[in-house]
Amino acid sequence: METAINNEQISDNHLMVRYRDGDIDAFNELYARYKTSLYRFMVNSCSTESIAAELYQDVWARVVNGRHGYSTSAPFAAWLYRIARNRLTDFYRSNKNNNLTTSLDFENDTHVTQLQTTLLPEEITELSTRKDALSVALAKLPDEQREVVLLRHIAGFGIQEIADLVDENTETVKSRLRYAFTKLRKQLRMLS
Which of 11, 76, 100, 148 could form an S-S bond across to 176 if both were Cys, CB 3.0 to 4.6 Å? Predict the structure, then answer.
């Protein structure tokens, strides 16, 4: 069993296989790689941070419990976020609450600049100073549109990866993103 993980070039899949085979340090490295983006995804998908924190812990518990069934047929990140999506779905079904609200943490946000391709530069600047504006705008998006925005700009997935995660074709994902950004732009201008 290998003990230390110091190489960021080791693939996530390889780390998960090592963890599946008993290497705890491999799990620690995976956790370090994904803890922030997964937590932000959960927080932005939930109505409260306390629910998000609970579900976040649940997701990691499912990773631990499901390690022996892990297969490298899909990237680790896709497997992790599928677990997260399923956990969110289960939670909201059991609570019959489909009114998700969202909030983004701009103090630690490195993804804001990625939105520049869809929003005007002055809108990005305004977002940096008015973090609540995006939270309000995101909360008004339909669940499917909010989810693809979060998967793209919080989790950092590409279009094809998102399509695979949400079981839709790439054109549907692109359409959801396009509609979401149109609605976000409109909401942000109304909140200005």
Answer: 148
> Is the Cβ–Cβ distance between 65 and 51 less than 8 Å?
no
In the prediction, which pLDDT does 140 show?
A: 84
174's CB contacts (< 8 A; 6+ apart) are: 159
Is position 117 within any domain?
yes
Query: Is residue 101 domain-resident?
Result: no
Rounded distance, CA 27 to CA 17, Å? 10
84 and 117 inside one domain: no
| pLDDT one-digit tens code per residue, 93-103 | 888 644 444 33
Domain count, the chain: 2
DSSP state of 72: T
CATH code, domain carrying 58: 1.10.1740.10
Predicted model pTM: 0.72
With 0-12 / 13-18 / 19 or more C-beta atoms within 10 angstroms meaning exposed / middle / buried, residue 122 is exposed
Cα 172 to the center of its chain, rounded Å? 18
Q: Is 98 helix (H, G, I), strand (E, B) or coil?
A: coil
Query: Does 139 lie in the same domain as 119?
Result: yes
As a whole number of angstroms, the distance between CA 42 and CA 88 comes to 8
CA–CA–CA angle 189, 163, 60 (5° rounding): 95
Give the range of the structural domain holding residue 52, as residue numbers without chain letter. Answer: 12-95
